Amino acid sequence: MFVLVAALTGAATAHAQSPQTLTLRVDNDAFDFWMMPYNRPDEEYTSGVHLTYTGGRAPWWSRFLVGNGGACTYHAQSCQSSRAELGQDIYTPSASTNNPQPAPGSRANAGWLYLSQSARALDASRSDELSVTLGVTGPPSLARATQNLFHSIAPYFNRPTDWSRQIRFEPGAIIGYEQKRRLVAYSVGPIGFDLLPSVSVKAGNVETSAGAGLQTRLGLNLPHPWLPESMPVSLTFMAGVSGRAVLRDIFLDGNTVSPDYRVGHKAGVGAGEAGVEIRYRALMASYRVVDETRSYAAGPQWHPWGSLVAGVTFDR
Length: 316
Prior knowledge:
- The protein is mostly beta strands.
- The chain has a single domain (2-315), classed as Outer membrane protein (Lipocalin, Beta Barrel), CATH 2.40.128.
- It has helices spanning 2-12, 63-66, 143-153, 250-253; strands at 19-28, 44-55, 78-92, 110-123, 126-137, 170-181, 184-188, 191-204, 207-220, 233-249, 268-280, 283-293, 302-315.
- It has a 12-stranded antiparallel β-barrel with strand order 1-2-3-4-5-6-8-9-10-11-12-13.
- The two termini are 22 Å apart.
């Protein structure tokens, strides 16, 4: 829990007009709303729940990297902030609708329950974020219990699952870095447009990879992509592409010691996304669709999933 305590401590020292944001993001292939419910996939990356708090100054352990700048305030042109996240991700193998047995060559079931803390250095054209993530795989991730609970709510639309093949318990750690740029920012009256390239790297026993992406946004009263702004209402449409070079993925390569369910990973994975976001004063809601390419030899050629996000911003 040290990440949440440190984040809240940083927030308490922030200026009274420093905005704090609490966000809940839920990923699920059940959110592929263009498909009939009984046709939506229930496999691969099938569920993710992420509760995120952003605000205050960067955490103490990052001060030698991001300096001693002030916490973000409305319309600030350069600032720093902290981000803490509690999350759970669930992965399941491909299987037929009425048969819980996985298809030949499919991945094992897996869960990842984690806490993460990030230090962010921000200005008008650049965002740098350094993160430390600690978590667990296997039964302590509570993935099996979570899936069984939600499948019991709507059994007609959910196939049965068999968790006898599961990535074992393993403590996990990931150090990550991501840099984003705002290369183009153009507006005509209330209509705005920008272009956001990004690069990232992760290293740890759960995931080791490097990635790059490009996102474009078009909107009414387009908000800044990472600096806080106060405005009555905004509507944003977004689209992007990304790719990752993967060196290790515990959910495909199996546990670090004596891997039981290794299926191997593809060295390169791509994705496309599109979404819409609306903000009204302190409230935010968005819907995003992501379609990922095959991540291992027996995996599906494409796997689409949806993401629902709700957030609220408050001042301290």
